Task: inverse folding
């Protein structure tokens, strides 16, 4: 089958489920991934023959997409902060909002030496900061062994060295016996009550333990990590969170009550309260 014919076939198969724009994007992503040709090459060489084995791989990928499996999981990879990351259902798919958090942390802490990423997941935050701040030593912590395996693969893939450790930030015994200039975290923050508004591709495939918190304790992780910051941040060290837009003011009050200073609530590109930064007041 030729590239031009395959493009039309893939697009037609996707259209019953996805709109035209998304169908076109997914078609391009599938063909680039499996044929190993970039978009320019595909458009300039529509008569390139595609081997039957590759066509079969694309057909299998389409079947997964039609079941609402996220294309990042279908392809096994995604892009974040200009880097390539492996992803699978053991880790959340990195979001654009989290890129904004990384850029903010990197811009404000160019000379930071020791940085800690709690609830690291795929390692996208830690790996991206290590790539941007090459004098910093990064530590990443997660409760999931499967997530840590993915994070370690992503560090190797992007040629950075990170100390990944297994631990639970909700346990009172949490301790790394080390001080950090920066602690950053994108913890679980979606309330169970928000599930009806979420897409099947999220609910059916992404790890719920990395997404959801009980409705009656939505600040659970923020409280725990804020207390960790009081013992693990260096003097004037900074703590950064990605947050649920509904709880910005409550998180600010929580941090102020714990005697953090310079608390800043920051909006994302969509105008939603999405990030908080504060400094240790020791």
Result:
């Amino acid at each position: 089958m030729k590239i031009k014919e395959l493009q039309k076939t893939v697009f037609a198969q996707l259209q019953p489920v996805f709109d035209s724009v998304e169908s076109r994007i997914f078609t391009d992503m599938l063909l680039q991934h499996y044929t190993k040709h970039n978009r320019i090459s595909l458009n300039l060489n529509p008569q390139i023959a595609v081997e039957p084995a590759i066509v079969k791989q694309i057909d299998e990928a389409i079947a997964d997409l039609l079941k609402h499996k996220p294309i990042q999981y279908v392809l096994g990879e995604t892009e974040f902060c200009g880097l390539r990351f492996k992803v699978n259902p053991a880790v959340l798919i990195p979001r654009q909002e989290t890129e904004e958090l990384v850029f903010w942390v990197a811009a404000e802490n160019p000379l930071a030496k020791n940085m800690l990423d709690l609830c690291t997941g795929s390692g996208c935050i830690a790996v991206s900061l290590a790539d941007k701040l090459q004098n910093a030593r990064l530590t990443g912590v997660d409760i999931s062994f499967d997530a840590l395996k993915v994070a370690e693969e992503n560090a190797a893939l992007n040629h950075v060295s990170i100390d990944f450790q297994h631990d639970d930030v909700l346990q009172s015994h949490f301790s790394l016996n080390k001080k950090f200039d920066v602690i950053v975290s994108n913890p679980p923050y979606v309330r169970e009550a928000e599930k009806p508004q979420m897409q099947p591709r999220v609910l059916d495939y992404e790890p719920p333990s990395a997404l959801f918190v009980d409705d009656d304790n939505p600040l659970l992780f923020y409280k725990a990590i804020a207390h960790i910051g009081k013992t693990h941040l260096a003097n004037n060290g900074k703590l950064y969170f990605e947050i649920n837009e509904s709880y910005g003011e409550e998180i600010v009050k929580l941090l102020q009550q714990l005697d953090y200073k310079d608390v800043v609530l920051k909006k994302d590109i969509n105008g939603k309260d999405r990030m908080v930064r504060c400094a240790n007041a020791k």
Observations:
- DSSP finds eleven helices and eleven strands in the chain.
- The two ends are 67 Å apart (CA to CA).
- Residues 20-35 form the longest helix (16 residues).
